[in-house]
Amino acid sequence: MVAKSSAVLQTEMSVLQQLNTQHGGYRVKVEKLDGEMRDMIKDAKAAHADGGKDDGGKDRAATALEKLWSNGYKLVEWDGINPILLVDTEGTIFGALAGQPKDPGWSKRCMRLFDIMAEDADAAAKLPKKNTQHRRGFYPAIDTGVTFAPGDSKAHNLRLERKEAALVENKEALEIERSIQKFVETSIDVFAPRLYGYIKDHMQRLQRHPDYTGLRWNDPHGAMSGKTRNFPWCVATVPHRDVMNMAFAWCGVVAIGPYNAIYGGHFVIHNMKLAIQFPHGALILIPSAFLWHSNVPVRHEDHRASVTFYTSGGLYRFIDNCFMRESDLAEAKPQEYAKRQEEKHLRRDMGSCHRYTSSSTTIPTFVFAFLTVIINLGRPYLVRCYLLLSYGLIRLFAASKSLIDGIVFVSGSISTLIATK
Ligand SMILES: [Fe+2]
Fold this sequence. Notes:
The chain crosses the membrane at residues 363-382, 403-420. With 421 residues, this protein is of the alpha+beta class. The chain is built from 15 helices and 15 strands. The chain has a nine-stranded mixed beta sheet. A four-stranded mixed beta sheet has the order 4-12-11-14, covered by helices on one side. It has a two-stranded antiparallel ribbon with strand order 2-3. A hairpin with an 8-residue loop joins strand 7 and strand 8. Helix 7 packs across helix 8 (193-208), helix 8 crosses helix 9 (313-320) and helix 13 (362-375) runs antiparallel to helix 14 (380-409). The longest helix is centred in the last third of the chain and has 30 residues, at 380-409.
């Protein structure tokens, strides 16, 4: 029942097939899972209609876990601190159980955020249905940030009703959420630096555009455009994919609250058939637009909330299309439009961690090692010394980025990254 406990979880992702869209981009086909997920969603709806009660004296969390084990899901025991990477068969990192910062106050701050949200839980429960019964589950949620949705002609802030706005204005909570967002973004930069560069570059172009300086960002210094606050008492998502997010971008989920992660609150990735223990204060990063995911409920004496950070897919298209809709670009700048269509097929390789596996810095180092061998062919001792030195240089260059960004923020990230090369 327990998945292998190494720092890398590997999957064949056999259910994922990619098909060209009409403009040469890629979309993911997950038909094989759709039926199974539909049944699970139906079960979750029935359990909710039944008041989410325990099942014949058995805790609802235990019942949910038993169902997963009987369907062949595997348990990942995770302390919520040491990072574990999600890696496909080609060695591409496509997600990470990132952990939490080496900061003694982190857990307390996250619990303070939970307490602030708990004070608003009753008011949140009275929000309209769109907030309390949505495709992600049956708990109150409020989205804030910047977006560009189908039908929009400009990037804009998500519109909040008065009651929603009142529930997301607490300054202390916003401050804590900003520090969490900083950790989310730093972690993406550590595990998928090219992806983070892509996200940051796009959002900075929008932030600097003279027509959009009035947008209100969740974190004015951050790059993730959207945030969802999921209110107590028992946040547990039903199987879903966040299809409006950018397809290959990672979404960050931070779980908070007083609950025992051994007995409930697991993060389930259905494409991998894994149920991951997900303790309070921990961060998980996944490409949420194409992986089916959900949570196991917590025990009825436990309480759980969460905060998620993401970027809207529409924003990237809008920015790439010279801050226009695609149809407007085709009319106004046909050459630019043709160029954008050409670029679409290149995007499928983005989001991986190539900086650590094929860096340009490794090529000169290999050339240096090769020349050294040729020059010193008659002196085997010197050859061995130079080869050892070259090997050390390769390791140092490849890990240098993580040394700068990761050592302070992500405990264990260095050894994990090196171990995966
Ligand atoms: Fe999600």
